[in-house]
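BUG: 3D viewer hangs when loading the predicted structure for this chain

Environment: internal workstation, default settings.
Expected: structure renders.
Actual: progress bar stalls at 90%.

Input used:
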Amino acid sequence: MITVKNQTVYKKFLLIRTDRIGDAVTILPAVNVLRKNFPNAHIAIFCRDYTADIFKNNPQIDEIIIKTTFWKDLRNIRDKKFDVAIIFFLNTYCAWLTFLACIPIRIGPVSKIWAFLLSKRVYQRRSQDLKHEADYNVELLKFLNINISPAEGKIYMPPADNIKAQNYLKEMFNIDSKNKFIIIHPGSGGSALNWPADNFALLIKEIMTAYPALKVLLTGGSSEQKTLNYIASKVAPFQPFILKENLALTDFISIINECVIFISNSTGPLHIAAALGKRTVSFYPNVKGCLPKRWSPYGQGHIVLVAGNGKPTLRKECPDDFMSDITPQKAFDAFERQLENDFELIN
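Structure tokens produced before the viewer hung:
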């Protein structure tokens, strides 16, 4: 780092987020803010291998460092001589890693005992769900004395990946550039309560009845294939497509980038869709730790339907039919609102 006219100019930043896909997406606005303020700095991301594709091709990011083993990571990080480390999700691993790597400025939330290893601590109380996770992440930058203006969180797709996705959709489902399709992703990977599979089936029937030219693609992980097949079996005589192949994340991102609307529970792929600029409809529970105020898709163009009213409840207190408070008709109405600006689909 250097000092110019009493203002510190940092040269190398390490941004750390080592949890899940949706969590990783929420640091993209912070990346955007940092790059605006330090256009010539070196910005590196430290993340898990399976989230790295979120950051690839991003012109605001100079380097992606994949988490491996502690001692290997420590040698690697220490040798790179970063000026600033920002730990967006504090855990033992990352706290000790940045401390032992002798990074002078180590910023993070005061959420766990390991915060004593930080040099700059931010009291946020994220468990109160008072703001969006992306805004909590941006807030950590305040110690850098920079201009924190509204920022976007964007995933960048190279043209070659778009072409690859288009060819895959044509080969597997006979979907070409003339066919518009929506993605319905009924799982959540356990991160939130799921809207019932039967409700997804009723919604699909309603959509395919009203818009016969519109294709529907069901997506989910390998553990969710049973649910996808069940939903597809309930929508006869209609036949939605099912993405059965377990694609690499970069390929799945490129498939999402081709759809016109993404419909799902609270889940990582929903945040990917938002970062790609897709219109979304999503289903959230009024439950502590899952509230849309903190975990909804970031930015404009999204409709969030919430099950449960009043004071947020605890997840363990929710009845099995808690998410049924959102009816298929409410979901269909939200879907149609997302179609209002798409002349080709509604005519």
